[in-house]
């Protein structure tokens, strides 16, 4: 019996589907974050990363609420942001107080974005930080973030929408005995952000963390001086430590702010329960503060 040979179709192969995502997200050469009209609360907003984040969100068209402990510093920050033309409200708040989060978020009224950034944990080895200093630092940053997140989640759940960005720190993934309180506190906040953000999506809310490496702020200088004292015997030699940094410099606050703005936007709508590191690759190659 003759066997028929299968004749291949002469149809032309299909071209792979091509989607130009630039047509989706770019207009007139600019990436649209679609943040205009959103309301954002930034804690620790009077200087450094917090002020840079507030400035970036204001530039994107957000109404901004600034929270910090110093009234004078907050007014100075508001003056710096007035040029964006958006409403800017200031709130004097001590986030180490458990009653503060509810009062602060109620004062904001409608809220779309919370950026937790308040808190400074001192450098030092375990025998250099007493119990009082350790607890004071964690009450502000660790429990401050936890309490603000808990309160904001209650607010966001009602609308099934909202974003929480926790600015944490690289020491959480690269523990350093010379910064033991900060390393353990940041590691806790990393786990917290991942756990909450993995579950919050079921209620329409995203929670993400950001781990900056060394950032060019006054706080960074304080930490580097402490490290220089321990490793070089002289805090005034802290600038020598910069030569080991990626690109020979620390991260700029504006670079962190750009990342936070992206994560808070609809362009990052599928990002939750994770921590994004911005450190020039320092943690991946074994670096630390």
Description of the molecule:
It is a single chain. This protein has 289 residues and is of the alpha/beta class. It has two domains: 33-215 and 252-278, Rossmann fold (3-Layer(aba) Sandwich), CATH 3.40.50.720; 217-250, no CATH class. The chain is 38% helix and 15% strand. The protein contains nine helices and nine strands. The protein has helices at 21-25, 48-59, 71-81, 100-108, 131-140, 142-157, 180-200, 218-231, 253-264, and strands at 26-27, 30-31, 39-43, 63-68, 88-92, 113-116, 162-167, 205-212, 275-278. It has a seven-stranded parallel β-sheet with strand order 5-4-3-6-7-8-9, sandwiched between helices. It is globular.
CATH architecture name of the largest domain: 3-Layer(aba) Sandwich
Helicity, as a percent range: 25-40%
CATH topology descriptor of the largest domain: Rossmann fold
For the record, the count of structural domains works out to: 2
End-to-end Cα distance, whole Å, is 80 Å
Radius of gyration: 23 Å
* Averaged pLDDT: 88
Overall form = globular
CATH class of the largest domain: Alpha Beta
Q: Report the uncertain regions.
A: 1-28
The main pleated sheet reads as: 7 strands, parallel
Strand order of the largest sheet: 5-4-3-6-7-8-9
- Count up the helices: 9
Query: DSSP strand (E) fraction?
Result: 5-15%
Oligomer: single chain
β-strand number: 9
Topology:
Elements: H1 21-25, E1 26-27, E2 30-31, E3 39-43, H2 48-59, E4 63-68, H3 71-81, E5 88-92, H4 100-108, E6 113-116, H5 131-140, H6 142-157, E7 162-167, H7 180-200, E8 205-212, H8 218-231, H9 253-264, E9 275-278
Parallel strand pairs: 3-4, 3-6, 4-5, 6-7, 7-8, 8-9
Antiparallel strand pairs: 1-2
